[in-house]
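Protein modeling request. Please complete all fields; requests missing the sequence field cannot be processed.
Requester role: graduate student
Desired output: 3D structure, token encoding
Chains: 1
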Amino acid sequence: MPTATRLISPLGNAIRRFAVPGLTLVIIGMAAAPGPGDTEGNVSNPTVDVLLGRHEKARFKAELANRSVGGRHYDWNQYAAWGKELVLHGQVRQPPIGPAPSRPLADRYRCVHCHNLTREDLRLNVQDPEAREKLIRKAMIDDLTRRDGSVLHLAPGTTLWGAVNRESFYNGHYAKYRNQTLASGRPMDPTKVVDAITVCCRFCSGGRYPEQWELDSMLAFHWELELRLSDLDLPAEEVQQILRAFQTNDAVGIAAAQRKIKQSMLRAAAATKGEVPDRSEGDTDFYPDGTRITGSAKLGKVVYESACAGCHGSVNSLAGRALIMDDKRFHFYTRSGTERDGLYMPLFTTQRLSRPQVADVRAYLRSLPR
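Delivered output (370 residues):
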């Protein structure tokens, strides 16, 4: 999983390294340069929330400070800790109210089944599942089936890292979820991450509406995953220009900086439903546009473990050749998902799995012993 460290070079530049075993992405920015402050007091590496003038985290922190749960007030760190438990485990071991542990948000799914918690794309504004696969292969992860937030995987949903900085949710194919209502009966607002969290808990996960303290906690944890200036991969000179514009309160420069920031981040995750092949013969899929793609069982093992095994497992009744006894059904479930008797399988859009990756998975499953 990519980790971030800050180093100081002999030239005084701040170097931010995203280290994956076998791969290092280096981004250079200014060290200790004056710039806009944020709620964390970091002027050399401010948050995107502050740079865009939104200050949503600060407002939410103020709201939480005035709220109570069971007659008690809790600090930000406690809410974020509960939120992490809910995202990882779907419940809290020692909740502020009610029985311990808290009631699961959903019977089968947790957030980490469908979402990464770390950076998943080298270029934030480019969703490329094959580039993502290369990152995973270079990381040489021992157990790709883990779904505890520590392992980057080919998740069906976009990473939660930086989600609070996006401007639109449930886009493309998933826009149908915008018709869903919240517990209050109000339609969800696709521009609000808190509404997206609610809809995901109740409808995508096939679970329940979160209680207010649970929703507050998950939102606090999401804010712990917010983007900072160094995450945008901008050249050092552009970083300097941005910080200088805020330092000098240059209105024209600030406007240009904010445009550049928006261009460099993922403002709304695309979700394009993939086309299914007309037919499959052996390990080859034949698509309506004339494309023929032959899968590789060798490559498919990693793709399967990274994309599928978190739910289907490596060896159990839901895995193995049983998944491809019917090629058409395999492709339908992969690209359309399924919901039967409360059992929900999310689909993989083209931003999450490419045609070659789907072919590789099918080839791998076909190679398994009957």
